[in-house]
């Protein structure tokens, strides 16, 4: 059964950290592919900091132009908002019974997992590959949980928040995002 990693996120905007994680998961683990699922609205985030989902998708597609075994997914664009992960997982399972889905998340999301809708069902029914993130140690009660695998990958101390703040302050963000994404942000005047 093909194994597909689902990397859910706001991607506001997508950055080099996301791309390194997606590439590691798609090409250095036993996953066959990774789908980067652009979420219209994370239930735990205020909507006013999140730009239009189509611009976020476009940036993800630009960033993934040369990626191997990684593609974007718009599955949540047609589902109710905010975007509850369990609802998307159930929908994907129905649509793709031939695939085994595995979740990919940074350790910050693992820290807030207990606030997610039906998180016990997620932990019961899905494997989760966790990418460690500075300042977000894995909660001890989840460290040895059978659903969870912590990957042995380098820490990257940057975030979409850092990029949005830098753009607002007129700072240079080259290399934090791919050149194509940088050009898109500049041309559309995003995050100013
Ligand atoms: N530097 C990083 N190291 C590890 N995981 C990361 C990193 N940046 C993002 N992630 C993970 O990528 C996924 C999508 O993240 P998201 O789009 O929220 O990016 P973010 O940088 O955390 O954004 P924001 O700063 O807006 O909260 C989440 O699972 C998050 O944990
Ligand atoms: O299902 C939930 O209750 C839930 C709560 C918080 C976050 N999520 C999802 O987790 C993903 C990570 O979001 P983000 O903003 O950290 O990139 C995104 O797809 C959210 O919709 C899901």
UniProtKB/TrEMBL annotation:
Coiled coil: none
Gene for this chain: nadD
Pathway linked to the protein: Cofactor biosynthesis; NAD(+) biosynthesis; deamido-NAD(+) from nicotinate D-ribonucleotide: step 1/1
Originating species: Parapedobacter pyrenivorans
Name this polypeptide is given: Probable nicotinate-nucleotide adenylyltransferase
Stored InterPro entries: Cyt_trans-like (IPR004821), NadD/NMNAT (IPR005248), Rossmann-like_a/b/a_fold (IPR014729)
Listed CDD domains: NMNAT
Entry keywords, A to Z: ATP-binding, NAD, Nucleotide-binding, Nucleotidyltransferase, Pyridine nucleotide biosynthesis, Transferase
Alphabetical list of Pfam families matching this protein: CTP_transf_like
Family the entry assigns: Belongs to the NadD family.
A Gene Ontology biological process term: NAD+ biosynthetic process
Catalysed reactions listed for this entry: nicotinate beta-D-ribonucleotide + ATP + H(+) = deamido-NAD(+) + diphosphate
GO MF assignments: ATP binding; nicotinate-nucleotide adenylyltransferase activity
